[in-house]
């Protein structure tokens, strides 16, 4: 008989679940409310999971977790010999677990009874487009009267009912808990962003993906991964598991390469780039753009038809086709998808247009990589009759190499550029700007206004009615991180307020 540990008079209630450790050769079952990785979030009846992280050793916080009412603790063991050893602090079991950090996803899979098998799970990875595609997928399912959830940078939850989250891809515990929540709320599908950090750190290792989708790979996060090949290898992990459908963007060099390795993958392209393969396909014919969005003749292995959609930019055509590919793979009806496509809405902070008569149009976008910034500026150039402005910055404590490259892009593809702050974090804002200026051919031609509000105000006051001002980098974010503190700040709110005041 396994030992069921729920000590300290903790009463099992309806929200209580059982964590079985048999699969890890520990003959114990723990009855607890939930599994929590952060001592600051522990409540009575929780099991605190103390891992040794990148910056801190979570085992330092066991005492805090106990004070907050933890009724069990799983603690990273330093050696295999300690695995399964149990200490008690005031009768609370402290169980040593070797390889705990790598086992989080599987432990939570066991605890929540494999929630990813109880709905259709789509994992989206790549440098740009993850948030947009996951939101489009959930939007599309909702338009077809279904219920779908998302997980990602903008938040987690059922479509249009998001709760903010700290990471794009949450911890191995949090991801499973969120999928379980969505299953309970009746979601038939969840579209989740899978970041390269999430893949390397095993945050999704025990999930059962129905679809794995690749968008593109360009420079980002080299502070963490070191070089592009290591970054690509991290993304590739999503496709190496036992996933049912692989969906690859063959307009991207890596997507094309991976399509050789997985000839049965579904390929999609907006440029008719398909390579010989045995799998299904989607591509766009007669793709055209106007201020109302894009339209094309969508040719696929499921049929052909007119795809029309209000999202701006070629990359959004690619994102919509990617979303369509995933839904077709899961059996959604082709004609039904095309019929409701014109009703898909812009994603919060992604190419979002704010316009008032007599004023330059402002577009808030989350472009924070050289490639995204170039694509966003190119997309807007087509619609711009006057001058194109670019207000942008680069994050602190993140890939420094992308700073001069983003500056080069802004110089090349806009008429007027304003460099401003974007989450300097613990770096001096002036250092970030110096790194950016190093990429410019004419550094004197650029305005530097650190305060984002003032930068937007200045551009608005200098621009003409037929100009477009791209405000890039923060998108949906409603904060500016200075030092370790988050201050409330939103480009969207700032622009709405400034436009209102000019009426
Ligand atoms: C460098 C990195 O990736 N860190 C991630 C990692 O944290 P870690 O395990 O190394 O944590 P740590 O800070 O060393 O702390 C160790 C342990 O002590 C615990 N702790 C800490 C303090 C305390 O008072 N009590 C306590 O219990 C922590 O909860 C943690 O479990 O695992 C955590 C849980 O999964 C993540 O939240 C955390 O993301 C940090 C916040 C982060 O900034 N990550 C970025 C780089 C990131 O992951 N970004 C990607 C992609 C972004 C994108 O392109 O969209 C993402 O998916 O978000
Ligand atoms: N398919 C795409 N190709 C290139 N750029 C894109 C694409 N889709 C969106 N973008 C650009 O990248 C920005 C970020 O898009 P999105 O938030 O969808 O990406 P993400 O992959 O979720 O990014 P993050 O890694 O920060 O979560 C957009 O605001 C837009 O400028
Ligand atoms: N989630 C990504 C994008 C952040 C975008 C930008 N606002 C910044 O802070 O650099 C990251 O953490 O690298
Ligand atoms: Mg995202």
TrEMBL record:
Domain Mur ligase N-terminal catalytic as annotated: residue spans: 35-112
Catalytic activity: UDP-N-acetyl-alpha-D-muramoyl-L-alanyl-D-glutamate + meso-2,6-diaminopimelate + ATP = UDP-N-acetyl-alpha-D-muramoyl-L-alanyl-gamma-D-glutamyl-meso-2,6-diaminopimelate + ADP + phosphate + H(+)
Residues that, per the record, bind ATP: 126-132
Residue span(s) of domain Mur ligase central: 124-326
Binding locations of meso-2,6-diaminopimelate: 398, 422-425, 473, 477
Domain (Mur ligase C-terminal): residue spans on this chain: 349-475
Positions of short motif Meso-diaminopimelate recognition motif: 422-425
Positions contributing to UDP-N-acetyl-alpha-D-muramoyl-L-alanyl-D-glutamate binding: 39, 167-169, 195, 201, 203
Enzyme class name: ligase
One annotated Gene Ontology cellular component of this protein: cytoplasm
Keyword Amino-acid biosynthesis: no
Pathway(s) it belongs to: Cell wall biogenesis; peptidoglycan biosynthesis
Keywords, comma-separated and alphabetical: ATP-binding, Cell cycle, Cell division, Cell shape, Cell wall biogenesis/degradation, Cytoplasm, Ligase, Magnesium, Nucleotide-binding, Peptidoglycan synthesis
Enzyme Commission (EC) number: 6.3.2.13
Intracellular or extracellular location(s): Cytoplasm
Family matches, as InterPro entries: Mur-like_cat_sf, Mur_ligase_C, Mur_ligase_C_dom_sf, Mur_ligase_cen, Mur_ligase_N, MurE/MurF_N, UDP-N-AcMur-Glu-dNH2Pim_ligase
Pfam family, one: Mur_ligase_C
PTM annotation (N6-carboxylysine): residues: 235
Biological process per Gene Ontology, one example term: regulation of cell shape
NCBIfam families documented for this protein: murE, PRK00139.1-1, PRK00139.1-4
Family to which the UniProt record says this protein belongs: Belongs to the MurCDEF family. MurE subfamily.
PANTHER family, alphabetized: MUR LIGASE FAMILY MEMBER, UDP-N-ACETYLMURAMOYL-L-ALANYL-D-GLUTAMATE--2,6-DIAMINOPIMELATE LIGASE MURE HOMOLOG, CHLOROPLASTIC
Name of the featured protein: UDP-N-acetylmuramoyl-L-alanyl-D-glutamate--2,6-diaminopimelate ligase
Source organism phylogeny: Bacteria, Pseudomonadati, Pseudomonadota, Gammaproteobacteria, Alteromonadales
Record gene name: murE
């Amino acid at each position: 008989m396994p030992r069921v540990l729920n000590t300290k008079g903790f009463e099992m209630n309806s929200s209580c679940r059982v964590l079985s450790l048999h699969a890890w050769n520990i003959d114990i079952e723990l009855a607890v409310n939930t599994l929590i990785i952060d001592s600051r979030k522990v409540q009575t009846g929780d099991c605190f999971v103390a891992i040794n992280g990148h910056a801190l050793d979570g085992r330092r916080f066991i005492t805090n977790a106990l004070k907050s009412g933890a009724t069990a603790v799983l603690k990273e063991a330093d050696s295999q010999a300690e695995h399964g050893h149990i200490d008690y602090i005031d009768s609370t079991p402290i169980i040593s677990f070797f390889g705990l950090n790598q086992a989080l996803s599987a432990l939570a899979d066991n605890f929540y009874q494999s929630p990813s098998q109880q709905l259709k799970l789509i994992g989206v990875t790549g440098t740009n487009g993850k948030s947009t595609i996951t939101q489009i997928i959930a939007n599309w399912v909702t338009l077809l009267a279904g219920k779908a959830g998302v997980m990602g940078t903008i938040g987690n939850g059922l479509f249009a009912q998001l709760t903010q989250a700290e990471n794009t891809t949450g911890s191995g515990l949090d991801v499973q808990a969120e999928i379980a929540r969505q299953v309970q709320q009746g979601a038939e599908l969840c579209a989740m962003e899978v970041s390269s950090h999430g893949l390397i750190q095993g945050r999704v290792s025990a999930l059962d993906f129905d679809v794995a989708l690749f968008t593109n790979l360009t420079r980002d996060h080299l502070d963490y991964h070191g070089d592009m090949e290591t970054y690509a290898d991290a993304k590739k992990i999503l496709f190496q598991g036992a996933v049912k459908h692989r969906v690859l963007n063959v307009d991207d060099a890596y997507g094309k390469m991976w399509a050789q390795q997985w000839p049965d993958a579904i390929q999609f392209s907006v440029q008719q780039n398909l390579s010989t393969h045995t799998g299904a396909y989607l591509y766009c014919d007669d793709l055209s753009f106007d201020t109302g969005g894009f339209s094309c003749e969508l040719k696929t292995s499921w049929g052909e038809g007119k795809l029309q959609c209000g999202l701006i930019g070629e990359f959004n055509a690619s994102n919509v086709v990617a979303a369509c590919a995933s839904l077709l793979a899961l059996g959604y009806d082709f004609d039904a998808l095309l019929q409701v496509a014109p009703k898909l809405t812009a994603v919060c902070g992604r190419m979002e247009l704010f316009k008032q008569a007599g004023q330059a149009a402002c577009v808030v976008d989350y472009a924070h990589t050289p490639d995204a910034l170039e694509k966003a500026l190119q997309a807007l150039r087509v619609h711009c009759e006057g001058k194109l402005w670019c207000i942008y910055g680069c994050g602190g404590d993140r890939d420094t190499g992308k700073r001069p490259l983003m500056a080069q892009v802004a110089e090349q593809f806009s008429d007027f550029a304003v460099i401003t702050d974007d989450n300097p974090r613990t770096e001096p804002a002036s250092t970030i700007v110096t790194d950016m200026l190093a990429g410019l051919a004419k550094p004197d031609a650029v305005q530097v206004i650190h305060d984002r509000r003032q930068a937007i105000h200045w551009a608005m006051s200098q621009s003409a009615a037929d100009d477009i001002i791209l405000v890039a980098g923060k998108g949906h974010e409603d904060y500016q991180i200075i030092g370790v503190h988050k201050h409330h700040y939103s480009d969207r709110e700032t622009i709405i307020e400034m436009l209102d005041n000019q009426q």
